[in-house]
Amino acid sequence: MLLFIFSASIIHAQITTTTVQGVVYRADGTPAAGTLIVTWPALSTANSQAIAAGSATVSIGQDGFVSLNLAPNAGASPAGSYYTAIYHLNDGTVNKEYWVVPAGASASIASVRAQLIPATVAVQDATKQYVDASIASLSGNYLPITGGTLSGPLVLSSTANLTIGGEARVGAALTAASLNGEITVDGNTYTTLNAAWNAAASLVISSGHNQTVRLGPGTYSLTATLMEPGNGACVNLVGSGGASTAADSSASASTLSVPSDLSGDVIFLGNSAQAQGCLFKDFTILGNANATHGLELQWFRGLVVDNVAVNDTSAEGILLGEESTSNGHQSGFLLRNVTVSYNSASFTPASRPAYGIHLLKTAIDSQLDTMLVRNAQIAAVYNEGTGNTGYMIHGFGYPYTCTTAPCSNTASSSTAADASYATNYVVYDTGGAGSVWTDTYADSPAIAAFYIGASGTSIHGGHIQWPDLTSFPSANLAYVASSVTNGLEIADIGCLGMSPSVNWITYASASGVPPTFASVHHLTGCGNYAQALEPETTTGFTGGGASNNAPGNGVVATVWASPKAGTSNYEAYSAQLYNGYQTDLFEGHVAGQNPFFNVTYQGTVRSQGVLRSRPLLTRLQR
């Protein structure tokens, strides 16, 4: 005990010591108690005072406090001379640390702890075998800078960046919160679709540019509506697999499921600014009757909805545009390969949504390409817009037939004897002029394939069929509302299974008359209308009304018809006037001259010339 103040009097009198003290704590924050043993080698202080090797033992109090006096060894020789402090705690724990004590009145334990192991401790000989084994262990557990293979995961901190200058090959899955600027649901940074969407929406707001959330295969549960920002840019949603045309199927690679009530839509875009170029592609929405609409998008331009299925929403699967036109908004879109379906197990005939796809008044000059809508109550597609074009729309209800016919598609119970899920119409059009519907497949409508409530509507091509004549015996090709006054065209449609006792088209005007400038032709099998036969010689007219093959051109103008069959009682021509008309069935005249031959609706034949018949003249001569 040569070092402490209670050492020999000569040491006490000549060496100035530093009081080292402090409170010792365990890792759980409680004070430690036990014994502290401090040892030191022979050394010379910075003042060239010789210190003999020795040790000291001090108790650590119950409050963790310990204090002892030591000669300063900072700057001592030989270099690397340290105090070795060993803690023997009451719980059996033993710890070792090294101290460098400065000159001064006192110093804390924390301040004297050395940052490095003393050189005298660290320096030791190593054999070649030891060095070779150490290098081998390093090469097996670390990736050299020259390259190699990782056998375990590579984890980077949240602030780290990995830059690869050459080609990167990933043999297994690669997961990232963002790939090529597209946000993903990686399960780490963004654990849910709602989280990824919100991150993309924040980028839309801060950058002013569209952002994309890309979905891998799997089912993504939604807990809130995916709200589009209102600054004119939008969040695109792109899945990794095509939508299924089978109702309520989860076979799609990317499925959005709504397990509980959203009290709103799955995806919503408002009308505070016109969003440009939004894209929704390659996913299926399973609404489970917990979402109002799959997509409700109000003000946009360049919208594309492609390969998307919407199932079992409580209202229209897709709702586009706005009902009010007072703010001058207009919206344009392309819908392609879209399916909307309502499962008969989830809805009664009366409770199912009215429409599959609903185009409001501001949805204009747009295109629907290949739509499939199942079990909408009123119509597969409801168009209130202007100038929209629909191609290959397939609408139907299933089951269509009922136990006891005639059926009702508004039954309050799906088990009622007359319950049917038939759709009233496939296309319900009350919009502005210029809408065109091409190659529509109307599968078993309850009322008619088309409800036409807008002038200037054209229907080209398609097919309509019914499985029987008893479920909805009055169903026909089209219902033309009294509001339609001109510009109707219905052509090139085939009907199968329509009742022969119904009118093929219902005209709702007071006299049951088609609108002005209507053209209805080339219909096959549609109710009590059989067919139209074109003559071989067709008379054409110039803009002024003159015949192109008039006698002045050396050609006789001819219009002719032959009976539709060889039976002797089939007529070549048959004319029927509409209710309320009392005019001529037939009139022949030369342009600019008074009529010279008429057949009245009463059957009277009138002529300003002579009626000639060879048998008649023979009888008169007799």
Give a structural overview:
This protein has 622 residues and is mainly beta. The chain has four domains: 9-122, Sandwich (Immunoglobulin-like), CATH 2.60.40; 259-524, no CATH class; 537-566, no CATH class; 575-622, no CATH class. The protein is built from six helices and 39 strands. The chain has a 15-stranded mixed β-sheet that branches. Strands 14-17-20-23-25-27-29-31-33-35 form a ten-stranded parallel β-sheet. A four-stranded antiparallel β-sheet has the order 5-2-7-8, with no helix packed on it. A hairpin with an 8-residue loop joins strand 37 and strand 38. It starts with 8 loop residues before the first helix and ends with a helix.
Radius of gyration: 46 Å
The percent range for helix content is: under 10%
Low-confidence stretches: 1-13, 528-555, 616-620
Specify the structural class: mainly beta
Most strands sheet = 15 strands, mixed
Count of all domains: 4
Q: Residue-averaged pLDDT, rounded?
A: 83
Distance between the termini: 172 Å
Taken as a percent bin, the fraction of beta residues is 25-35%
In DSSP terms, counting alpha (H) and pi (I) runs of 4 or more, how many helices?
6
Apparent shape: rod-shaped
Let me know the number of strands: 39
Task: Provide a compact summary of the structure.
This protein has 622 residues and is mainly beta.
What attributes characterize this protein structure?
622 residues, rod-shaped, mainly beta, 8% helix, 6 helices, single chain, disordered C terminus, 15-stranded mixed beta sheet, 39 strands, 4 domains, ten-stranded parallel beta sheet, disordered N terminus, Immunoglobulin-like
